[in-house]
Q: What sequence folds into this?
């Protein structure tokens, strides 16, 4: 209990540094860009247009308003991909600073994931634009979507901490994780409906029960696309996966952090 209080106090102590690092990451991402933060909206829109053109005819009989269906899942996947990939490199990328002054090493990973969350929240503007253009209905349940983002944020923090410490010792993890992300995209019903896997019930079961990203996508679609409260089992599984991943990530990060200086 005392350790938890100490960590919270430390986090509060360095809150200004976290703010500065988040601001720096956002500014660097759009540095020398004419449109700047507008790209947070344009990027998901452009991806949505391409994917809709490619896949809408394939699934048009199964999915109404495919652009909204696609974006509600794609936004969460993009956040997971960008935040965990950035978090994985956060310690190594700040090696020069860590060698000069004492800063809690997890600050860099946390700041990277937080900056990606801010960017993702900005990209929600793309979803609202698509909903307006396609005439989609705005349900009151959309107000509950921040609770889904909170789950994904906690999950990504845990995964980011785990990947960050692993990347210090094994740089090959970057290439392995890139392949994992590709597989993760296609093993999550973002582009296609889960019903398309009826001919492979074992795979459908595996996705529904063992894929954390599915829990979050299913919740987000229930709130925004369908307009009803998500299935309680998906909510419970989402929180469970988030807290478990956070515990695993923090454990391995804290266990190995004192050795970072020897490898970075």
A:
């Amino acid at each position: 209990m005392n350790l938890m209080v100490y960590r919270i106090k430390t986090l509060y102590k360095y809150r200004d540094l976290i703010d500065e690092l988040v601001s720096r990451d956002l500014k660097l991402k759009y540095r020398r860009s004419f449109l700047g933060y507008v790209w947070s909206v344009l990027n998901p829109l452009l991806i949505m247009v391409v994917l809709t053109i490619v896949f809408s005819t394939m699934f048009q009989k199964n999915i109404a308003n495919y652009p909204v269906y696609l974006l509600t899942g794609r936004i969460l996947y993009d956040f997971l991909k960008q935040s965990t990939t950035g978090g994985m490199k956060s310690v190594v990328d700040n090696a020069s600073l860590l060698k000069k002054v004492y800063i809690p090493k997890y600050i860099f990973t946390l700041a990277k994931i937080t900056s990606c969350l801010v960017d993702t929240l900005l990209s929600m503007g793309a979803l609202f634009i698509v909903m307006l253009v396609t005439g989609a209905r705005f349900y009151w349940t959309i107000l509950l979507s921040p609770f889904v983002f909170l789950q994904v944020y906690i999950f990504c923090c845990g995964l980011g901490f785990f990947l960050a410490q692993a990347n210090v010792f094994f740089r090959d993890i970057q290439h392995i994780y890139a392949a994992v992300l590709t597989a993760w995209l296609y093993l999550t019903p973002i582009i296609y409906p889960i019903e398309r896997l009826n001919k492979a019930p074992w795979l459908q079961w595996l996705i529904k029960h063992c894929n954390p990203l599915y829990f979050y996508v299913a919740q987000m679609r229930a709130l925004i696309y369908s307009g009803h409260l998500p299935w309680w089992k998906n909510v419970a599984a989402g929180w469970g996966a988030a807290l478990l991943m956070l515990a695993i990530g923090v454990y391995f990060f804290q266990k190995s952090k004192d050795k970072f200086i020897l490898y970075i």
User: Anything to note?
Assistant: The chain has one domain: 21-262. Residues 223 and 229 are 6 Å apart (CA to CA). The mean pLDDT is 85. The longest helix spans residues 106-134.
